[in-house]
Amino acid sequence: MATASSQASLLLQKQLRDLAKHPVDGFSAGLVDDSNVFEWQVTIIGPPETLYDGGYFNAIMSFPQNYPNSPPTVRFTSEMWHPNVYPDGRVCISILHPPGDDPNGYELAKNAKSLAPLHPSVFDSMAPIFIDITILLRHDPKYRKVESIVLSIISMLSSPNDESPANIEAAKDWREKQDEFKKKVRRAVRKSQEML
Questions:
Q1: Topology given in CATH for the domain delimited by 4-191
Q2: DSSP character for 1?
Q3: What are the domain boundaries of the chain?
Q4: What tens digit of pLDDT does each residue of 14-64 get?
Q5: Which residues are catalytic?
Q6: Is the Cβ–Cβ distance between 139 and 99 less than 8 Å?
């Protein structure tokens, strides 16, 4: 019987091979060290027509031994100014939270905005049932692929969530000082280009 660690290793090797055979627009990925499939180097290309456009942002993805049941951590090693990135570079989005862990109230903020009412005819006598499908999906390991995680980060760059920020100062700039926010992001983009 395979251990969780060996299953995670096999899954990560397969995902790495799949990404090599079928690259996905917007990022590249590889191992930090060929002997450790649990540490990946990812380069995210700033999404077109966003403030991050033209940037090449490096990050490290560290996978736990029980991946995909638990999510990896992702930390930008390139400078990054964003409400959902801690000052030390760690990314804070729901797909990277373990089930039940919501340190910044992201799910509460998200639920307040995006709950969709469902009215199953079987339950006509009951009040409408509300559900946010993204919360369900992030807890399902089959949706926690490297590709899905990185595409979620790219989406985060396009649409910051300033309601439950990881970086309070970046969120304040985003809300109250757009010119300052843009200036700091442009600096991060320039620095990322210089590192090529």
A1: Ubiquitin Conjugating Enzyme (3.10.110)
A2: -
A3: 4-191
A4: 999 999 999 999 999 999 999 999 999 999 999 999 999 999 999 999 999
A5: 92
A6: yes
